[in-house]
């Protein structure tokens, strides 16, 4: 497994602003993922972030709204842009080790 | 498109009872299946990973089974404790993929 940390753990943001979420891992991993969990719902994959290449976005998610950086094998950021109340969710990063996925503690975002 | 269903959506049991959580998936061509635990407002903790070639996995009081041909998995929790109270999520990875498809979870309450 790996130790995964996310910052911030929670935030309250105003409509129209942006929030950047950081994900730090204690070991080098090739594949990292970003998920969204809307209130009362299960997790939905936003995008896959591999170091050295552009992120791959799932249907319904676009780079302009959810830009992702992956500068090295232990770090990634997800920005949620032009926030609206519908973006209020828990955002989680995860990584793949030996076929098993491990998740960070999540970032709870509330948009007013 | 893979769909994962978990039944029941919620379950309340007295402490000490053995219980079974159910997960079904529509496409039997899976690479593996994972069971996770999620505490309120928190990230996911991986409980058990079952490869498509395996029938079951055990960890402590937890036992997960997989019947790939029928598209079913069960999570058995023995001698339940109040600390087991959480939402349990089932997720599958399709063959040739790395993306997890999640069920909506079973919210378990163990009453002291």
Protein described:
The complex is a heterodimer of chains A (112) and B (112). Chain A is mainly β and 112 residues long. Chain A contains no helices and 11 strands. In chain A, the strands form 2 sheets. In chain A, strands 2, 4, 5, 6, 9, 10 and 11 form a 7-stranded mixed beta sheet that branches. Chain A is globular, with a radius of gyration of 13 Å. The model of chain A has no long low-confidence stretch (mean pLDDT 93). With 112 residues, chain B is an all-beta fold. Chain B has no helices and 11 strands. Chain A binds chain B through residues 1, 6, 31, 41-45, 48, 58, 90, 92, 94, 96, 99-106, 108, and chain B through 31-32, 34, 36, 41-46, 49, 51, 89, 91, 93, 98-100, 102-105.
- Shape designation of chain A: globular
Q: Total number of helical segments of chain A?
A: 0
Which stretches of chain B are low in confidence, meaning pLDDT under 50 for 5 or more residues running? Answer: none
How many H/I helices of chain B?
A: 0
Beginning-to-end CA distance, first to last residue of chain A:
36 Å
Average pLDDT confidence of chain A is 93
Topology of chain A as a string of helices (H) and strands (E): EEEEEEEEEEE
Q: What level of helicity do the residues of chain B show?
A: under 10%
Helix content of chain A: under 10%
Largest sheet of chain A: 7 strands, mixed
Number of strands of chain A: 11
Helix/strand/pairing category of chain B: mainly beta
Over the alpha carbons, how many angstroms does the gyration radius of chain A reach? 13 Å
Question: Into which percentage range does the β-strand content of chain A fall?
Answer: over 45%
Shape of chain B: globular
Largest interface: A-B, 23 and 22 residues
Largest sheet of chain B: 6 strands, mixed
């Amino acid at each position: 497994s790996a130790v995964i940390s996310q910052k911030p753990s929670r935030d309250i943001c105003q409509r129209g602003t942006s929030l950047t979420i950081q994900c730090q891992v204690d070991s080098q991993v090739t594949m990292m993922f970003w998920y969204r969990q809307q209130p009362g719902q299960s997790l939905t994959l936003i995008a896959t972030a591999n170091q050295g290449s552009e992120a791959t976005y799932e249907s319904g998610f676009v780079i302009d709204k959810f830009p992702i950086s992956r500068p090295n094998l232990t770090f990634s950021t997800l920005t949620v842009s032009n926030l609206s109340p519908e973006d209020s969710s828990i955002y989680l990063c995860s990584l793949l080790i030996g076929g098993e996925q491990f998740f960070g503690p999540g970032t709870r975002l509330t948009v007013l | 498109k893979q769909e994962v269903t978990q039944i029941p959506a919620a379950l309340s049991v007295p402490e000490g009872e053995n219980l079974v959580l159910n997960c079904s998936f529509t496409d039997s061509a899976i690479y593996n299946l994972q069971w996770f635990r999620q505490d309120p407002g928190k990230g996911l903790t991986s409980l058990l990973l079952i490869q498509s070639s395996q029938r079951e996995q055990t960890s402590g009081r937890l036992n997960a089974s997989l019947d790939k041909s029928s598209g079913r998995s069960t999570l058995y929790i023995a001698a339940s404790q109040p600390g087991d109270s959480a939402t349990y999520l089932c997720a599958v990875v399709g063959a040739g993929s790395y993306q997890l498809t999640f069920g909506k979870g079973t919210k378990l309450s163990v009453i002291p």
